[in-house]
Amino acid sequence: MKVLITGAGGQLGRGLIASAPEGTEIEAIDIGDLDLTDADAIRSKIIADSPDLVLNAAAYTAVDKAESEEDLAQALNAAAVAAMVEALDKTGGKLVHVSTDFVFDGTSSRAYQPEDERNPISAYGRTKAEGEKALRPGDLLVRTAWVYTAGGANFVRTMLRLMREKDALRVVSDQIGSPTWAPGLAATIWGLVAHGAKGIFHHSDAGVASWYDFAVAIQEEALALGMLERAVPIEPIPTSSYPTPAARPAYSLLDCTKTRTFLDDGYTHWRVNLRRMLEEEKALG
Predict the structure, then answer these.
(1) Per-residue confidence (pLDDT) for residue 278, from 0 to 100
(2) Given 60, 124, 148, 212, which residue is catalytic?
Protein backbone atom coordinates (compact mmCIF):
# COMPACT_ATOMS: atom_id res chain seq x y z
CA MET A 1 0.00 0.00 0.00
CA LYS A 2 1.31 3.40 -1.02
CA VAL A 3 0.53 6.10 1.57
CA LEU A 4 1.07 9.86 1.51
CA ILE A 5 1.17 11.43 5.00
CA THR A 6 0.75 15.19 5.32
CA GLY A 7 1.74 17.09 8.46
CA ALA A 8 4.62 14.66 8.94
CA GLY A 9 6.46 16.88 11.43
CA GLY A 10 3.49 17.30 13.76
CA GLN A 11 2.59 15.29 16.83
CA LEU A 12 0.24 12.92 15.01
CA GLY A 13 2.29 12.84 11.82
CA ARG A 14 5.33 11.57 13.68
CA GLY A 15 3.19 8.96 15.42
CA LEU A 16 1.75 7.75 12.12
CA ILE A 17 5.20 7.36 10.61
CA ALA A 18 6.58 5.54 13.66
CA SER A 19 3.70 3.05 13.79
CA ALA A 20 3.18 2.42 10.06
CA PRO A 21 2.48 -1.24 9.31
CA GLU A 22 5.37 -3.24 7.92
CA GLY A 23 5.47 -3.18 4.14
CA THR A 24 3.67 0.16 3.82
CA GLU A 25 5.31 2.48 1.31
CA ILE A 26 5.31 5.85 3.09
CA GLU A 27 5.93 9.30 1.64
CA ALA A 28 5.83 11.82 4.47
CA ILE A 29 5.61 15.52 3.68
CA ASP A 30 5.50 18.63 5.83
CA ILE A 31 5.79 22.40 5.56
CA GLY A 32 8.40 23.12 2.91
CA ASP A 33 7.59 20.00 0.90
CA LEU A 34 4.16 21.08 -0.34
CA ASP A 35 2.23 24.33 0.04
CA LEU A 36 -1.14 23.22 1.35
CA THR A 37 -2.60 26.66 0.66
CA ASP A 38 -2.06 25.97 -3.06
CA ALA A 39 -4.93 23.77 -4.25
CA ASP A 40 -3.37 23.28 -7.68
CA ALA A 41 -0.12 22.06 -6.13
CA ILE A 42 -2.02 19.60 -3.95
CA ARG A 43 -3.94 18.18 -6.89
CA SER A 44 -0.80 17.92 -9.00
CA LYS A 45 1.12 16.13 -6.24
CA ILE A 46 -1.57 13.53 -5.62
CA ILE A 47 -2.30 12.91 -9.29
CA ALA A 48 1.42 12.50 -10.04
CA ASP A 49 2.07 10.13 -7.12
CA SER A 50 -1.27 8.28 -7.14
CA PRO A 51 -1.15 7.06 -3.52
CA ASP A 52 -3.63 4.41 -2.42
CA LEU A 53 -4.20 6.43 0.74
CA VAL A 54 -3.67 10.01 1.88
CA LEU A 55 -3.46 10.42 5.66
CA ASN A 56 -4.10 14.11 6.23
CA ALA A 57 -2.58 15.00 9.60
CA ALA A 58 -1.87 18.60 8.54
CA ALA A 59 -4.01 21.45 9.85
CA TYR A 60 -4.08 25.05 10.97
CA THR A 61 -4.45 24.55 14.73
CA ALA A 62 -3.73 27.99 16.23
CA VAL A 63 -7.22 28.31 17.70
CA ASP A 64 -7.00 31.93 18.83
CA LYS A 65 -5.02 33.22 15.84
CA ALA A 66 -7.65 31.70 13.54
CA GLU A 67 -10.05 34.41 14.70
CA SER A 68 -7.94 36.95 12.82
CA GLU A 69 -6.59 34.56 10.18
CA GLU A 70 -9.73 32.70 9.18
CA ASP A 71 -8.88 32.87 5.47
CA LEU A 72 -5.58 31.06 6.10
CA ALA A 73 -7.26 28.54 8.39
CA GLN A 74 -9.93 27.98 5.72
CA ALA A 75 -7.27 27.34 3.09
CA LEU A 76 -5.47 24.73 5.22
CA ASN A 77 -8.41 23.13 6.99
CA ALA A 78 -11.02 23.12 4.23
CA ALA A 79 -9.82 24.10 0.75
CA ALA A 80 -6.81 21.78 1.00
CA VAL A 81 -9.09 18.88 1.95
CA ALA A 82 -11.37 19.59 -1.01
CA ALA A 83 -8.35 19.63 -3.34
CA MET A 84 -7.19 16.27 -1.98
CA VAL A 85 -10.63 14.78 -2.60
CA GLU A 86 -10.75 16.16 -6.13
CA ALA A 87 -7.39 14.60 -6.94
CA LEU A 88 -8.25 11.26 -5.31
CA ASP A 89 -11.43 11.14 -7.39
CA LYS A 90 -9.16 10.97 -10.40
CA THR A 91 -6.63 8.48 -9.01
CA GLY A 92 -9.01 6.22 -7.14
CA GLY A 93 -7.33 6.72 -3.74
CA LYS A 94 -8.90 7.16 -0.31
CA LEU A 95 -8.58 10.05 2.14
CA VAL A 96 -8.18 9.65 5.89
CA HIS A 97 -8.80 13.05 7.43
CA VAL A 98 -8.28 14.04 11.07
CA SER A 99 -10.64 16.56 12.65
CA THR A 100 -11.53 17.94 16.04
CA ASP A 101 -14.05 18.21 18.88
CA PHE A 102 -14.21 21.93 18.03
CA VAL A 103 -16.77 21.19 15.31
CA PHE A 104 -19.28 20.90 18.19
CA ASP A 105 -20.67 23.76 20.29
CA GLY A 106 -20.14 22.12 23.69
CA THR A 107 -23.76 22.36 24.84
CA SER A 108 -24.47 18.61 24.84
CA SER A 109 -25.43 16.80 28.04
CA ARG A 110 -23.67 13.62 26.86
CA ALA A 111 -20.54 12.68 24.95
CA TYR A 112 -20.69 13.62 21.27
CA GLN A 113 -21.37 10.74 18.90
CA PRO A 114 -19.90 10.63 15.38
CA GLU A 115 -23.19 11.46 13.64
CA ASP A 116 -24.13 14.37 15.91
CA GLU A 117 -24.79 17.70 14.23
CA ARG A 118 -21.85 20.05 13.83
CA ASN A 119 -22.23 23.54 15.26
CA PRO A 120 -18.81 25.19 15.68
CA ILE A 121 -18.43 28.34 17.76
CA SER A 122 -14.98 29.49 16.60
CA ALA A 123 -13.19 30.24 13.33
CA TYR A 124 -11.01 27.18 13.85
CA GLY A 125 -14.06 24.99 14.39
CA ARG A 126 -15.84 26.44 11.36
CA THR A 127 -12.92 25.75 9.06
CA LYS A 128 -12.50 22.20 10.36
CA ALA A 129 -16.23 21.59 9.88
CA GLU A 130 -15.96 22.81 6.29
CA GLY A 131 -13.11 20.39 5.69
CA GLU A 132 -15.25 17.52 6.97
CA LYS A 133 -18.00 18.38 4.50
CA ALA A 134 -15.62 17.84 1.57
CA LEU A 135 -15.20 14.13 2.31
CA ARG A 136 -16.83 11.38 0.26
CA PRO A 137 -18.82 8.47 1.74
CA GLY A 138 -15.90 6.11 1.17
CA ASP A 139 -13.37 8.31 2.97
CA LEU A 140 -12.51 8.04 6.67
CA LEU A 141 -12.92 10.90 9.15
CA VAL A 142 -11.37 10.56 12.60
CA ARG A 143 -12.18 13.23 15.18
CA THR A 144 -9.98 13.67 18.22
CA ALA A 145 -9.20 16.18 20.99
CA TRP A 146 -6.51 17.52 23.33
CA VAL A 147 -3.63 15.78 21.51
CA TYR A 148 -0.19 15.57 23.11
CA THR A 149 3.02 13.55 22.80
CA ALA A 150 6.57 13.55 24.13
CA GLY A 151 8.71 16.22 22.51
CA GLY A 152 5.75 18.06 21.02
CA ALA A 153 4.26 21.50 21.55
CA ASN A 154 1.32 20.77 23.83
CA PHE A 155 -0.44 21.41 27.15
CA VAL A 156 1.55 18.78 29.06
CA ARG A 157 4.94 20.22 28.22
CA THR A 158 3.68 23.78 28.78
CA MET A 159 2.45 22.81 32.24
CA LEU A 160 5.76 21.14 33.10
CA ARG A 161 7.62 24.31 32.13
CA LEU A 162 5.28 26.55 34.12
CA MET A 163 5.43 24.28 37.15
CA ARG A 164 9.21 24.72 37.18
CA GLU A 165 9.03 28.48 36.63
CA LYS A 166 6.01 29.64 38.66
CA ASP A 167 5.08 29.54 42.34
CA ALA A 168 1.40 28.90 41.54
CA LEU A 169 -0.84 28.22 38.54
CA ARG A 170 -4.43 29.02 37.63
CA VAL A 171 -6.07 26.57 35.19
CA VAL A 172 -9.54 26.51 33.64
CA SER A 173 -11.83 23.96 35.28
CA ASP A 174 -15.09 24.31 33.35
CA GLN A 175 -14.00 23.04 29.93
CA ILE A 176 -14.53 19.29 29.88
CA GLY A 177 -13.16 16.66 27.50
CA SER A 178 -10.53 13.94 27.40
CA PRO A 179 -6.81 14.10 26.57
CA THR A 180 -5.45 12.06 23.66
CA TRP A 181 -1.97 10.54 23.47
CA ALA A 182 -0.82 10.87 19.84
CA PRO A 183 0.75 7.38 19.54
CA GLY A 184 -2.57 5.85 20.64
CA LEU A 185 -4.43 7.96 18.08
CA ALA A 186 -1.99 6.87 15.37
CA ALA A 187 -2.47 3.20 16.27
CA THR A 188 -6.25 3.62 16.08
CA ILE A 189 -6.02 5.27 12.66
CA TRP A 190 -3.86 2.47 11.27
CA GLY A 191 -6.26 -0.06 12.81
CA LEU A 192 -9.24 1.60 11.14
CA VAL A 193 -7.39 1.63 7.82
CA ALA A 194 -6.48 -2.06 8.13
CA HIS A 195 -10.13 -2.93 8.74
CA GLY A 196 -11.38 -0.87 5.78
CA ALA A 197 -13.26 1.67 7.90
CA LYS A 198 -15.13 4.50 6.21
CA GLY A 199 -17.33 7.25 7.53
CA ILE A 200 -16.91 9.03 10.89
CA PHE A 201 -15.11 7.65 13.95
CA HIS A 202 -14.00 9.25 17.22
CA HIS A 203 -10.82 8.63 19.20
CA SER A 204 -9.69 10.03 22.52
CA ASP A 205 -8.42 8.32 25.63
CA ALA A 206 -10.98 6.96 28.08
CA GLY A 207 -12.14 9.00 31.03
CA VAL A 208 -13.21 12.60 31.56
CA ALA A 209 -11.19 15.63 32.62
CA SER A 210 -11.12 19.38 32.79
CA TRP A 211 -7.94 21.24 31.95
CA TYR A 212 -7.55 21.70 35.71
CA ASP A 213 -7.86 17.95 36.31
CA PHE A 214 -5.30 17.34 33.58
CA ALA A 215 -2.87 19.86 35.10
CA VAL A 216 -3.19 18.32 38.56
CA ALA A 217 -2.52 14.85 37.13
CA ILE A 218 0.50 16.13 35.18
CA GLN A 219 2.02 17.49 38.37
CA GLU A 220 1.31 14.35 40.38
CA GLU A 221 2.74 12.01 37.76
CA ALA A 222 5.75 14.23 37.07
CA LEU A 223 6.56 14.42 40.79
CA ALA A 224 6.35 10.63 41.04
CA LEU A 225 8.82 10.32 38.16
CA GLY A 226 11.21 12.88 39.65
CA MET A 227 10.63 15.33 36.81
CA LEU A 228 9.67 18.14 39.19
CA GLU A 229 11.45 19.16 42.37
CA ARG A 230 8.38 20.60 44.13
CA ALA A 231 4.63 20.85 43.94
CA VAL A 232 3.01 24.20 43.24
CA PRO A 233 -0.57 25.19 44.12
CA ILE A 234 -2.97 24.88 41.18
CA GLU A 235 -6.14 26.95 41.40
CA PRO A 236 -9.24 26.00 39.40
CA ILE A 237 -10.74 28.99 37.60
CA PRO A 238 -13.74 29.53 35.29
CA THR A 239 -13.30 30.24 31.59
CA SER A 240 -14.56 33.76 32.26
CA SER A 241 -11.40 34.43 34.30
CA TYR A 242 -9.18 33.45 31.35
CA PRO A 243 -10.66 35.20 28.29
CA THR A 244 -9.33 34.23 24.86
CA PRO A 245 -10.10 35.50 21.33
CA ALA A 246 -11.74 32.18 20.38
CA ALA A 247 -14.65 30.57 22.19
CA ARG A 248 -14.08 27.00 23.36
CA PRO A 249 -16.75 24.31 23.71
CA ALA A 250 -17.48 23.89 27.42
CA TYR A 251 -18.17 20.17 27.06
CA SER A 252 -16.61 18.35 24.11
CA LEU A 253 -16.20 14.77 25.30
CA LEU A 254 -16.17 12.41 22.30
CA ASP A 255 -18.10 9.13 22.41
CA CYS A 256 -15.64 6.52 21.13
CA THR A 257 -17.91 3.48 21.49
CA LYS A 258 -18.20 2.98 17.72
CA THR A 259 -14.42 2.97 17.31
CA ARG A 260 -13.67 0.63 20.20
CA THR A 261 -16.42 -1.77 19.09
CA PHE A 262 -15.25 -1.72 15.48
CA LEU A 263 -11.64 -2.46 16.45
CA ASP A 264 -12.51 -4.63 19.48
CA ASP A 265 -9.44 -3.24 21.23
CA GLY A 266 -10.69 -1.94 24.58
CA TYR A 267 -10.23 1.41 26.29
CA THR A 268 -7.11 3.02 27.79
CA HIS A 269 -7.62 5.71 30.43
CA TRP A 270 -6.00 9.07 29.74
CA ARG A 271 -4.01 8.95 32.96
CA VAL A 272 -2.31 5.69 31.90
CA ASN A 273 -1.23 7.29 28.63
CA LEU A 274 -0.15 10.46 30.41
CA ARG A 275 2.22 8.35 32.50
CA ARG A 276 3.59 6.72 29.34
CA MET A 277 4.16 10.10 27.73
CA LEU A 278 5.95 11.48 30.79
CA GLU A 279 8.21 8.44 30.93
CA GLU A 280 9.13 9.10 27.28
CA GLU A 281 9.56 12.80 28.00
CA LYS A 282 11.89 12.01 30.89
CA ALA A 283 13.93 9.71 28.64
CA LEU A 284 14.33 12.55 26.14
CA GLY A 285 16.00 14.59 28.88
Answers:
(1) 98
(2) 124
